[in-house]
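Sequence in, structure out. First:
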Amino acid sequence: MNISRPEQRALHVLALGGRILHERDGGPRVIAVTCVTREGMILAGFDLVLFNRLRRKRLIESRSGSPYRISKRGRLSVRAQLDNQGM
């Protein structure tokens, strides 16, 4: 599966314990997303388009309305890196 550099960066953050906070419009539609690292920092460059690509590829998932986290498929797809500083 081809995964772009921004997608890889987001998956690395999620694999290290990060989460994606989402905001809905009162219905099922997600209108705003924020990717937060384990330390509480916000990942720059993460937007709704990138979120939808990750969700469409089933690399992230949410259970019972909780924040989105990396799925098993996402963990298997992410490339091994010591850290994502070099990306």
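Second:
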Amino acid sequence: MPADLVGERAQAVGLADAASTILIVDDVPDNLLVLGSLLQPSYNVLAAPSGPRALEILAGESLPDLVLLDIMMPEMDGYEVLARIQDNPRTCDIPVIFLTALDSPGDEERGLEQGAADYITKPLQPAVVLARVRNQLELKRARDWLQHQNAFLEREVARRMEENDLTQLVTIRALAHLAETRDSDTGYHIMRTQAYVGLLAGRLRTHPRFADILTDKYVQLLVRSAPLHDIGKVGVPDHILMKPGSLTPAEWEVMKTHARLGADAIGLVERDIERPVPFLALAKEIARWHHERWDGTGYPDQLVADAIPVSARLMAVADVFDALTTPRPYKPAFSLERAKGLIEAGRGSHFDPDVVGAFIETYAEFVAVAERYRDADDDVLDVR
């Protein structure tokens, strides 16, 4: 092949491919020389005189962008080399063009079926080689760009989901703290009750009565929703909410409205958004029904037993335990053991019996949570 023709063909490729690296694999030195002379003005060229040597190069740190691979070689033919390239996760995306003197339709079909990107028959025509090399490199660059874009988009979606998730958590916590600023409940109340609910849900996940409901997703949403259980207290007048003594029957009726007020407020939020938000549905359940009792004597709807949503049954135990073990204007804090006894006494009347069972089984963890999130102005917890 005349040198001036080689140079003319190579110049036609353009400068955009200057950084591309091509590996030529052929057991005939003259073929390596000719292809190298054709491609080297525009590409970085690597040469391998055998299949094993080609695999050694491909095992190196820097990978080529394209492989030109002879089929008929001793020791290891091109089909086996191609199979090795495709079996390796590091090299499987490198396009391979077969170069061969086998020019029957069946040979070409076999090469393409085995995964070759293209098939060029010998004797080689420079214009054909350069055009097909360029086409494969452009396709590879397009694939690489798409992969890069997809990876970027995946990272961006993950970042935005994490950001949205954090915003949601902060909003929930802010709303819950807003409710508590008007109540006598302690500052860590929402963190303790949230943890208590998580402990109960974790213990009951394999229980036959709860396994179908307490899925991973449900538990995640349940724990997230728990801090909004008393959001309705923002609608209770201060003279009732902060009264240091016992409430009158009329005042108690007003206090009980916080369950309905909280559920209604969350319901208004649901109507204002374009699509359902699962954690809001659970938050609404908890807000409305966490004061229901197993025997039907609770409020606001006097639900009985399994008619009370699971979310509210778990919150009932968590909320009562925390109310018992922290000081309120109308009572001092009870000891943890006394609170435990009162929860056990409410088994089957106030609380779902199996939820109380889970509470007893996780009592040591409840104590750990109570101690971890003890309010700074509380006395040392009495566990007796």
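Remark: Strands lie at 21-25, 44-48, 66-70, 96-100, 118-121.
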